[in-house]
Every structure is written in C-alpha cells, then in structure tokens.
Specification:
By secondary structure, this protein is of the alpha/beta class. It has 3 domains: 270 residues, Polyphosphate kinase middle domain (polyphosphate kinase like); 174 residues, 2-Layer Sandwich (Endonuclease, Chain A), CATH 3.30.870; 186 residues, Endonuclease Chain A (Endonuclease, Chain A). Helices cover 38% and strands 20% of the residues. The strands form 4 sheets. Strands 14, 18, 19, 20, 21, 23, 24, 25, 26 and 27 form a 10-stranded mixed beta sheet that branches. Strands 10, 11, 12, 13, 15, 16, 17 and 22 form an 8-stranded mixed beta sheet that branches. Helix 13 packs parallel to helix 14, helix 16 runs parallel beside helix 17 and helix 19 runs antiparallel to helix 20. The termini are far apart.
C-alpha cells in the first residue's frame, strides 16, 4: 500500500485559532482529577479516579514529554499550531503538571485516605504499629523480602544502576567510610513481583503497610555496620517512544523485541521523590540521573499510587462504590448460539458496556466450531490476556480453517503481550501478519466467510473499540454486526489489500485511512457548508476521543462561518477553539468524564434531512487519518441509526458529568438552573438499554396459538 499523497497547501500560521495539544491533554487529565476531588462521588470511585490520573501522567511523560525533550535536544524551535515552541511547551507543561501532582497527592493525603481510614481501611507506617505487629512484619521481611533484595553501592568505581522505568527504589544515604569525609549513596530497588500492600499478621485485616516502608525499616539488615543517615523513595520515568522502521514481517518482530529491551536504557524524563527527601540526597540523585529541576516532582505521601487500586475492589465496601451496572444481554443465549441465523435476518448494533460484548465473542467462537465456516479474518490491536477471541481464533486454526490475523505490535505498552499471543496463534496454524509497512493498524474488523444454503456468505463485525472483553465492560463503544453483502465485499477487499500486494481497495460503503478517510470527512463537512450557504438547515454532530487535525478544524471553521450548527463531544484533546466571533460562533464542544471511559467515534451529518450516520475507529487526528489503517462504516437501518443518535444526544444533554470548552481552552460545568432536572448521560443510556432488553423479552414471550376447535 502506498502512503497517501500530501494534502492541501500549507496554511498560514494563525495560533489564535488553535489550542495546544499537550496543554489540552492536561486539561483532560484535570477533568479526571476533578472526579477524584468531587466529594459527591463514592469514596472508592474517587480513589479509582486518582489512580487513573497518576497512570495517565506516567504515559504522558514517557511519550509526549519525551518527544518534546527530544525536539529541544535536536534544536527544534518550530512552533505548533498554537504558536508554542517545544521549549515553551515543556515549561508550560512543567508548571501545570507540578500543580496537578500537588492537587492529586493533597487530595489523597487530606481527604481520600483519611476517609478510608475512618472506614477501617488504613495505610499505616511500620513505625506506627504496635510491637507485636512490627515483629510479625520483621519476620515477613526476613523470610520473604530480604532474599530478593540487592543493595547497590554507588561510587566512582560503580556507576549508577540502569533502573527500570516506573520502578520504585530507595535512595539510601550512608555515613562516610572510615577515614573518608564524603557521604555514600546506595540504591535498593523495591521488588515489583512482591505485593506492594503488605498486611501485618495479626492485624485487623484492613490495615496495610507499603513494601518500601517495610524495607526502609529494616535497612540495617542490608547495610550491617553502616550508618544509615537517610532513605527516601524515588521513581523514574523513562522515554518510552519506539524508534523503529515499520518494516513488517519477522524481521520487524525481532526488531521490536530488541527495541523493548532498549527501552529500559532510555533517558529519564521525570524523577518523583518523597517530599521528605533532603536537598543533599536529591542533588545526588539528579546529578546521577542527569535530570533537571523541572524533571523533579516532590510527592507528598506514597509514590506510584496505582497500587492503591487494589483497595477499590475490596469486598464488603459496596456502599463506597458506584452501584454496579452489569452489561445487558442484547441477545439471549439461544440467539447467540444461532448468531449466523440472526444476522441472516437483520443486523445488530451493540453499545458497550450497556450491551454485553458476548455476541461478538459468540460470533468468533461459533465460527471456530461451525463446519460450514471456511475462513476468519480479523484485526487485533489490544486484547485481554486470556482473550476468548484469541482462544477461538486459535481453535479455528487448529481445526483447519483459514485464519488470518493482522496483529498490531505497536499498540503502545501492550507490545510484549501482543508478541506472546501472536506467536501462540502462529503455533496453532493461523496466518499472522505483523503490521503493515509504514502504518499502524487501528481498524476493528472481523470477517467470517461461511458456506450456506444460498452459497458463500460473509458476516462482518465492525467496531469503534478493541476486541477486548475486559475493557468492553469499562469503555463505551459501538459495534455493528451484519451480513450486508456490500459491506462483506468491502471487508474482503480490505483484507486482501492488507495481506497481499495491491493498491488501496475501492469500497462502496466503507472508507479506509490512510487512502480515503480524510477526503471522505472533508467532503461530508463541505456538503453541510454548501447546504448552509444555500439557506438549508445544516448540522454536524460528532463524538471522538481527540480533535487535533488542522485541516479538519479549518473545514469546521469554514462550515461554522457558513452557518452550520456543529456540536462536538470530544472526551480528551481538543485543539479547536469554539465560540470565536466570526470563526466558530456555531460550534459547541462538550467533554463527558464519568464512570465509563467515553471511547466511541460517531459522525452524523444532517444532509438536508436525509441524515447520514457513521461509526469508526479513527479520531480526527493526523496520525489516524494519515499514518494508520482505519475504517469508517455507515449505520443505515432506521432503528440502529436512531440508537446511535440518541446516545449522541445524551452526551450533549448531560448536566452532571459534562464540561463545556470555552474559547480560552478552559472548561466549565453546566450549572443547573431552577427547575432543571439532573441528567447523567451514562445512567440514562443504561436505563434505556434495560428498557430495550425488557421490550425484546416481552415480545418474545408473546405466544400466538391458533384455535383448533370452536369450543
């Protein structure tokens, strides 16, 4: 497949029209932090959001901040769309990220953890325990922890160890050796394979100490006869950007494995350290790690709070969590067994996590075991470790079916997992393709080819999210299952283009990036603009994770100037400024952050009243439109189309978990007016899904029995 041609002429720089991508992302993470700070949320939900904020920051530093640091080191001073150079971006990021970290750990120390302690769930210090419990911990340390530890002395003869990114470590400052004046530095890595939360034997069952605190309390066992002056926990984040030639094939797989090994040696982009660490110790660390003052984050409380997520799932604390919303059965078990017969009659639109992911698993599983199925072709980007989809694909290959799986190895931070199960599929007999030269495969599609009474028939699943049964319970996504022959033919053309040597396929209903998707979107936006100029009602409604692409944003501005009403539900990054006079007066942008991660991509165009609705895997970002394999697909049947539009409208109606983007890049919540009824979109959509299930069950329960006699 050839890369796309350059599109459009260079645009003049107009930084006043755009928001900076990185700062917009920090705004998004700030909205997640607001959920952790919101006392109206159940306590364990607040803790969950706090751990998400921290985890998000980890990836942000390892990827986005690392890229900016590389740009500065290479002398890049070119401004972004918003007019900021890489150096200016780094300075602004440092200011905002330090403030965010202070707020996050302040909320933990002052509100969340004290409130949990009142409910009996405590993170205690070893020093604060009674002698009996301290003795039990000392025994645990001697038996289970000490054998795993390796103290590392650091001096001129022994360089600073190559510590793993995101690993926890203790920096230990020791007194001078006999006859010397200089204090000495040592490092003790906290073992990642041991439980971070340690429960003292004989305790009350809900009190824990942190493993690093236990190690610190027993340092004399690691440095016998030495004077321990100070010990502080620290954590480093390293550059995690992969630098590869996207060559595909076996050589590419081996290159990726090598690059993952090199990732451990990449430069430090952030140094987190306990706030109690002395300036002297911190200076030693920053010098040895070659970190700058802006890279240093002093943290109040424990580092790496991801471990606290284990507390979120503690039993017997149901009142501290949101009431469970279990995925609903869009198809009964008997219908899932007859999935091909169901799809012969009608298409099926699923809205996860309200609708269960089971029908998708059933499609692949039934295809694996059905003797009439000849072939299964599927893309896989991220999936669960024990994925039933992967198991079904392996089973199908073992039974002699033609199984082709296009595995995206560069699914960031899932690369090693993808390598493992991709190899297992190969061993089962599947034909595995390790990516496409020059492009990341992000499309979500499964094609089943089956011989039926009427000949060969194709069954297709297209989605906005990954084939991951676990995240399908946490992310909102749409999936379309269909036996539409045109979509089936498009799906075959898509896979043939990816697995063989051919030009980009010409498809009738699907649109593919990087060859045609950008042009499709621009034409759809342009059509609305022309209708508005002709005096017709024109409207664009869209939902996505991120809006970054300059050409799309400018097309939306032009449409707005013509009078097109544009409503955008953008969960994360948004570089478009809504509400600019004479530029984007008719554009509104809302972000919804709630218990489920909003992940679906939806695009609706009024089209003079003959509305067109599309779902897809791509956000409006250059990487999705130009550097990834993506798919856009239509929702044509009236009932599924209305289901999509109702979900989209719910996002704009939310007045509890929505924030509206202002022209200056800040977000504000919608204030409830007098008499306004509270509306939480995700709860509303779950209730609507429940009603649909109840209606379907009631309809199937109606039995029409003919009378055989007049009596």
């Amino acid at each position: 497949m050839k890369p796309p041609k350059a599109h459009g002429k260079p645009k003049k720089r107009e930084p006043e029209l755009f928001l900076n991508r990185e700062l917009s992302w920090l705004q998004f993470n700030g909205r997640v932090l607001e959920e952790a700070l919101d006392a109206a949320n159940p306590l364990l939900e607040r803790l969950k959001f706090a751990t998400i904020v921290a985890s998000n920051l980890d990836e942000f530093f390892m990827v986005r901040v690392a890229a900016l640091q590389h740009a500065v080191q290479e002398g890049d001073t070119s401004p972004d769309l918003a007019g900021l150079t890489p150096g200016q971006q780094l300075r602004e990021i440092s200011l905002r990220a330090h403030e965010m970290v202070d707020r996050l750990y302040g909320a933990l120390a002052e509100a969340i953890l004290p409130a949990l302690a009142e409910r009996g769930v405590r993170i205690a210090t070893v020093a604060g325990l009674d002698p009996t419990l301290r003795a039990s911990l000392a025994k645990h340390f001697k038996d289970e922890v000490l054998p795993v530890l390796t103290p590392l002395a650091i001096d001129f003869a022994r360089p600073f160890p190559m510590l793993l990114s995101l690993s926890l470590n203790l920096a230990v400052l020791l007194g001078p050796a006999e006859g010397e004046e200089l204090k000495r530095l040592a490092v003790v890595q906290v073992p990642a394979r041991l439980p971070r939360l340690v429960r003292p034997v004989g305790g009350d069952g809900t009190s824990y100490v942190l493993l690093e605190d236990l190690i610190r309390s027993e340092l004399s066992a690691l440095f016998p006869g030495q004077e321990v002056l100070e010990a502080a926990v620290f954590r480093i984040s390293r550059d995690a950007e992969l630098d590869l030639d996207d060559e595909g094939g076996r050589d590419y797989l081996e290159a990726l494995e090598e690059e993952l090994r090199k990732r451990r040696k990449s430069q430090v982009v952030r140094l987190e350290v306990e706030a109690s660490a002395s300036d002297a110790l911190l200076t030693l660390l920053t010098d040895r790690l070659e970190a700058t003052a802006d890279d240093v984050y002093r943290v109040r409380g424990q580092l790496d709070i991801r471990a606290l997520y284990a507390l979120v799932e503690l039993p017997a604390l149901e009142d501290l969590r949101d009431a469970p919303l279990k995925p609903l059965a869009a198809l009964e078990a008997k219908d899932q067994e007859a999935i091909f017969e169901i799809l012969d009659e009608r298409g099926l639109l699923l809205h996860h996590p309200y609708d269960s992911f089971d029908p998708v698993v059933s499609l692949v599983s039934r295809a694996a075991d059905d003797p009439d199925v000849l072939a299964i072709k599927q893309t896989l980007y991220r999936t669960s470790g024990d994925s039933p989809v992967v198991q079904a694909l392996a089973r199908a290959a073992e039974q002699g079916k033609q199984v082709t799986v296009l595995v995206e190895l560069l699914a960031r931070f899932d690369e090693q997992s993808n390598i493992r199960w991709a190899r297992s599929l190969e061993e089962a007999g599947a034909h595995v393709i390790y990516g496409i030269r020059g492009f990341k495969t992000h499309a979500k599609i499964c094609l089943v080819v089956r011989r039926g009474r009427q000949g060969i028939r194709r069954y297709v699943h297209l989605g906005t999210g990954n084939y991951n049964d676990r995240t399908a319970r946490l992310y909102t996504d749409f999936g379309l299952m269909t036996s539409d022959p045109v979509i089936g033919a498009d799906a075959s053309a898509f896979f043939n283009a990816l697995t063989g040597y051919s030009d980009a396929p010409r498809m009738k209903k699907l649109a593919m990036a990087p060859t045609a998707l950008r042009e499709r979107f621009l034409k759809l936006i342009e059509r609305e603009r022309r209708r508005a100029e002709e005096g017709q009602a024109a409207e664009i409604r869209a939902k996505m994770n991120s809006l970054v692409d300059e050409e799309i944003i400018r097309a939306l501005y032009d449409a707005s100037k013509a009078g097109v009403r544009i409503r955008l539900n953008v969960r994360g990054i948004c570089c478009l400024r809504p509400g600019l006079k004479g530029v984007s007066d008719t554009i509104e942008v809302v972000s919804v952050v709630d218990r489920f991660l909003e992940h679906a991509r939806v695009f609706a165009f009024r089209n003079g009243g003959d509305e067109e609705v599309y779902l897809g895997s791509a956000d409006w970002m250059p990487r999705n439109l130009d550097r990834r394999i993506e798919l856009l697909f239509p929702v044509e049947a009236p009932e599924p189309r209305q289901k999509v539009l109702a979900a989209l409208e719910a996002m704009f109606a939310d007045n509890l978990k929505s924030r509206w983007l202002l022209p200056d890049g800040s977000y504000r919540r919608r204030r409830l007016g007098k008499g306004d009824e509270a509306f939480r979109a995700q709860l509303h959509l779950y209730r609507e899904a429940q009603k649909a299930v109840d209606r379907a069950r009631a309809a199937s329960a109606v039995l029409l029995e003919p009378l055989t006699s007049p009596g």
